[in-house]
């Protein structure tokens, strides 16, 4: 009974809203006002239909089907005991990375060469070029060509071990330009 009363009330409201738009004098309401009232009436009608549908759904409760739990037999697991490796029984050993050769820019010969003035560095390169060890530009910069020339000069003069220290490199360069 109450649902019918709601339907009747909504229908009456919608029809009244539509009538008000049609009955109103033409000069009292413009196109925008009439359009607004029509939109309001349509909104009320749609809202009433949505509420009616919701009420019908609530009257018939849904049937909930409970699922039966499914049981699975556990799969057997087999473990094979592995023999302990011999290295695991000993004390841990510290990891040391493999040897990497030092950069040609960090060897004692390079640091010593760069401590000279630019003029002296150019003189060292010029002397190496005169002896035929250096073929690059005389720019006073340490690079691969200068490194190879200094190594070759030290090897031929029998002073290879002098390149392993700063003191030995100073002696080699001073003998070259001295």
UniProtKB/TrEMBL annotation:
Q: Does the keyword Secreted apply?
A: no
Which intervals hold domain Peptidoglycan binding-like? 120-153
**Key words of the record:** Signal
Keyword hit for RNA-binding: no
A Pfam family that this protein carries is: PG_binding_1
Q: Which residues does UniProt assign to the signal peptide?
A: 1-28
List, alphabetically, the InterPro entries matched: Peptidoglycan-bd-like, PGBD-like_sf, PGBDSf
The protein here is known as: Antifreeze protein
